[in-house]
Design goal:
- By secondary structure, the protein is an alpha+beta fold.
- About 20% of the residues lie in helices and about 30% in strands.
- The chain has a 6-stranded mixed sheet. Strands 1, 4, 5, 13 and 14 form a 5-stranded mixed sheet that branches.
- The protein is globular.
- The two termini are about 20 Å apart.
Length: about 290
């Protein structure tokens, strides 16, 4: 249910404003030739860039009445345990949808305003292909602004190739392509899979694409329920991490009547290690 969240590395956050350093190599020096026996000259250091994101709190609170706990349920022994299991799954789905399926900038919060972590759409911009009209990448690519949606258009393989080449030119090695259901079917009509193959011996028709072997490496292609259906994300997954300030945990809430409540809570942020490694094709038609 949460393929992108499950693929991310986990790191520990130590503050509400989670910070990290990103490093890039210096550009190639085609004039790198020195005299024999010459004194060594120190090269200028390539500085790191300090980035940060805000930790967001998300929770689920199941509630079970005294009667529900007392009666026997077919297939389960304890109603609260069952509800906790469901809510934990739902919380993970919420987290993947927030990180990958919302156009959300970071917000430090205020009185009456909950903190929000910047989603992936507020970081990606170096390697993107978007629609016309008012379509635009986020400003500065630091998680502080959202992207502007443009005019939607049909998903084409040429758009994907443009983004993959751009990622590669900027040092990226994308390994994952995430699309919604409609555009996953469109993806399966790209070159090499324009005609379904039927395996007579297994009585099976193969009409899907699970991997895309591009000029710049092989990418796993995933249909994701929790991203926006108008987006195609092209990701190098080890350049994104889930930073947790508080791991998912449960605590019993005070009893205020004939029921029991449990709060399941986590505090987390998206860590964007280098957005130039990834990209996206945006503003796609969805029907």
């Amino acid at each position: 249910e949460t393929p992108l969240l499950s693929s991310m590395e986990r790191v520990k956050a130590s503050a509400v404003n989670h910070e990290w350093q990103t490093q890039a190599l210096a550009s190639a020096d085609t004039d790198n030739a020195v005299l024999e026996g010459d004194d060594a000259v120190t090269n200028a250091a390539t500085p790191t860039v300090r980035l940060g994101n805000i930790a967001q709190i998300s929770d689920k609170v199941p509630r079970v009445s005294g009667t529900q706990q007392a009666v026997e349920h077919a297939g389960r022994a304890n109603e609260m345990d069952y509800q906790i299991s469901l809510k934990m799954q739902e919380l993970k789905i919420d987290m993947e949808s927030i990180l990958f399926g919302t156009n959300q900038a970071k917000n430090a919060g205020a009185a009456g305003t909950a903190r929000r972590t910047a989603s992936i759409l507020s970081w990606i911009g170096t390697n993107d292909d978007f629609g016309g009209g008012s379509g635009a990448s986020p400003v500065a690519l630091l998680g502080a602004s959202t992207r502007t949606d443009g005019t939607q258009r049909a998903f084409k393989e040429s758009q994907l190739k443009t983004v993959l080449q751009s990622c590669w030119s900027n040092g990226g090695k994308p390994d994952t392509i995430a699309v919604g259901g409609f555009n996953k079917q469109t993806f399966s009509t790209f070159t090499g899979r324009s005609t379904p193959m039927e395996k007579a011996e297994s009585k099976k028709i193969v009409a899907s694409v699970d991997f895309y072997d591009s000029d710049f490496g092989k990418q796993k292609v995933m249909a994701c329920r929790n991203i926006r259906s108008r987006d195609c994300l092209v990701l190098q997954m080890n350049m994104w991490a889930l930073a947790t300030l508080r791991n998912m945990k449960m605590k019993d809430l005070a009893v205020t009547g004939d029921s029991q409540r449990v709060q399941i809570l986590t505090e987390y942020a998206l860590e964007a290690r280098n957005e130039k490694s990834s990209g996206g094709v945006f503003d796609l038609t969805t029907s």
